[in-house]
Each structure stands twice: as structure tokens, then as C-alpha cells.
Design a protein that fits this description.
This protein is of the alpha/beta class. The chain has three domains: about 80 residues, Winged helix-like DNA-binding domain superfamily/Winged helix DNA-binding domain (Arc Repressor Mutant, subunit A, Orthogonal Bundle); about 50 residues, no CATH class; about 190 residues, Vaccinia Virus protein VP39 (Rossmann fold, 3-Layer(aba) Sandwich). The chain is built from 16 helices and ten strands. α2 packs across α4 and α11 runs parallel beside α12. It is globular, with a radius of gyration of 22 Å. The termini are far apart.
């Protein structure tokens, strides 16, 4: 005999795709940015500003209001709620990039083919006959939304990582696969004597505006981390990179980092660490793991032991596991010299 509450909650979960699609729709239209934080706007004026019909827009906003996203009055007035304010582009830790990127056509189509992963195929490739990053290059609008999503992490990961790390002296910090440079700018704002290097695909680094280079403290380099990694940095960052790739590709990336590192350089891997017991973890962590499976097949979020095995296979010794104020952990490693230690036996989490 089921409980009515369980039935209702599961029924809403089954319909979750409908909510995601409506959230992407209002994010596409920048609805949350079109009226002030306080007060109300008229649905007719809002629809006209968006160039859409008033009645269907009202129905979408009314449905979202039932979940606490926007406020809709009986007379058709539209106002904000705490959740709808998070869809504004100017909101701290805005969720608009997540609504755009996670429910974009490329991601949406891959999830429709999720069952392909169970037979060894890649859902995204079955849906689009192309790999994820190639798809983003061919669909630059989605690529820009994806980069914005990576640069505006909802948990404020960049600030949390910057606060958890010390970079003494005047080091060169290389962010491998660093996207638009948002994390390095956050780090350099705190470590005022450091310099930064963003290494990513040519189309990614070329999109970084000159005013984002911090008066020359931040440089860029284009390339493919499967081929090489720039040499000469004192600290190498791999931030949410390894979860995009299967084990063999991760080891290849890590070995290229190792080849570029001089004596005394260190590697900082920033990733979520998946709990082996779902009862102890957060649902969003496992949804992230499923996103990786949908996009890349064998790519995934990893447990503590799995990260330890990857780093050891690439010739690194894990020095420390550090928590941050976000969901991300920082795994500090150096080039293996003597016996390798397992991550599970590393010193307690603390400031790196």
C-alpha cells in the first residue's frame, strides 16, 4: 500500500522534464530581467516586450508559480519570488546559465537517448552523431551558454576554491581547460602577486575580452590538453575537467600535466567527490553523474578511491584532500618520487 505523499512526490518527479523545459523557455526570453525586483508587471506588457503572445506566456508563468517560481495574481499581474530572482542574469550565483545550458537542445536530445549508455553507446552521439565538444563548436550559441554555465557555478565554486588555496610568492598558475578565465580572475584578485595562464581551445580563449586579462596579469594559450600542456607553471589547475572524460583519457591528460611540471610544481584537481552510499550524498551530485553519462558515456563523477587510482596511474602522489565552501573538493598532488600514498590515507582536509 503506497502513501499518498509518496505518490504525489513521485508523480512530480516524473513530470520534472516539463518544469525544466519551462524554466529554459523563461530563461531564453530573459523574463526575470524584464521587471524590477519588487512590484508587479502586466502580462500584456511583458508579452509585448518579449514579442510573444500573452495568453500562453501567462499559462507558462502560472505553472511555474505553482512551484514558487514567479508570482501570478488573479488579475494577471506578474511579480518575483526568491526563486525567480535567481533567474536574473545579475543575480549572485544566478541559475539562469544552468537553465539555459542543461535544457539546451544538445543536452535535451542526449537525455532522450539515455538508454544507449546501458549498451555501451554514448547517448549524445546517438542523438546527434557527433561528440559533445564538437557539437558545441558547431552550435556556438549553445557553446557560449555552456561556457557561461561553467563560469557561473551556482554554488559559487570559484570563490570557494580561491578562498581554500594559498599561492605564496609570485607564482604562475595555469588553469588547464580554464574556459573564460573566471576562476583565475577570482584567484588573482586574492593572490595579488600571482600571474595566470588560461589554456583552452582556440575558440574559447579567443572569446576572452581584453578587459578580462587583468592588465596583463592573465595570459591565454590555445591548444589541446590531449596533445600537450604549457610548461613552466608553478601550479596546474584541472577544474571540473576530469569528470568529462573516461579513465584512459583522464590518465592521458594527467600525464601531459606531469610532463609539463618542473620540480616543486603541484597539481590541484578540483572536482566533486561522489559518495559511494547515496543515502549520504546529495541528489544533485548523482544527477551530475548522469549528465556526464548522457553527454559522454563513460565520463563520470568519481569517488575518492577512483581519483586516487587515476592520479597514481599517471605518476602522481596525492598530498592532501581539501574541502571548500562549495560542493567541490581540491585534491593536491605532486609528481611521484617515492612510494605513492592512497587518497584515503592522506592528511585531514584543510587549507591547502
Amino acid at each position: 500500500m503506497y502513501h499518498a505523499t509518496d505518490h504525489a512526490e513521485l508523480n512530480l518527479m516524473i513530470r520534472g522534464f516539463q518544469v525544466s523545459r519551462m524554466l529554459r523557455l523563461v530563461a531564453d526570453l530573459s523574463i526575470a530581467d524584464r521587471f524590477p525586483h519588487r512590484g508587479e508587471t502586466d502580462i500584456a506588457a511583458l508579452a509585448a516586450a518579449c514579442g510573444v503572445l500573452g495568453t500562453p506566456l501567462l499559462r507558462v508563468l502560472r505553472a511555474l508559480a505553482a512551484f514558487g517560481v514567479f508570482r501570478v495574481t488573479a488579475a494577471g499581474g506578474i511579480g518575483h519570488t526568491p526563486m525567480s530572482l535567481l533567474l536574473r542574469a545579475d543575480a549572485p550565483q544566478s541559475l539562469r546559465p544552468a537553465a539555459l545550458a542543461l535544457a539546451a537542445p544538445g543536452s535535451w536530445g542526449a537525455w532522450n537517448e539515455l538508454d544507449a549508455a546501458l549498451t555501451g553507446e554514448v547517448p549524445h552521439r546517438r542523438a546527434w552523431n557527433i561528440g559533445r565538444f564538437e557539437y558545441l563548436r558547431e552550435h556556438p550559441d549553445e557553446g557560449r551558454d555552456f561556457d557561461l554555465f561553467m563560469g557561473q557555478d551556482p554554488s559559487d565554486r570559484h570563490a570557494a576554491v580561491a578562498a581554500a588555496c594559498d599561492f605564496p610568492g609570485t607564482p604562475l598558475i595555469a588553469d588547464i581547460g580554464g574556459g573564460n578565465g573566471a576562476l583565475l580572475r577570482c584567484i588573482l584578485a586574492r593572490s595579488t602577486h600571482a600571474r595566470g595562464l588560461v589554456f583552452d581551445r582556440a575558440e574559447v580563449v579567443s572569446a576572452i575580452a581584453s578587459d578580462g586579462l587583468m592588465d596583463g596579469r592573465l595570459a591565454t594559450a590555445a591548444g589541446n590538453f590531449f596533445d600537450h600542456v604549457p610548461a613552466g607553471a608553478d601550479h596546474y589547475l584541472l577544474v571540473r575537467v576530469l569528470h568529462d572524460w573516461p579513465d584512459e583519457d583522464c590518465v592521458r591528460i594527467l600525464r601531459n600535466c606531469r610532463a609539463a611540471m618542473h620540480d616543486g610544481a603541484r597539481l590541484l584537481v578540483v572536482e566533486r567527490i561522489l559518495e559511494t552510499d547515496p543515502a549520504k550524498g546529495q541528489p544533485i551530485e548523482y544527477l551530475g553523474d548522469m549528465q556526464m553519462m548522457a553527454m559522454f558515456g563513460n565520463a563520470r563523477e568519481r569517488t575518492q578511491a577512483e581519483f586516487s587510482a587515476l592520479l597514481n596511474a599517471a605518476g602522481f602522489e596525492v598530498i592532501r584532500l581539501g574541502a571548500t565552501a562549495s560542493s567541490a573538493f581540491i585534491i593536491e598532488a605532486e609528481v611521484h618520487v617515492s612510494g605513492m600514498r592512497d587518497l584515503a590515507s592522506s592528511p585531514p582536509a584543510g587549507r591547502l
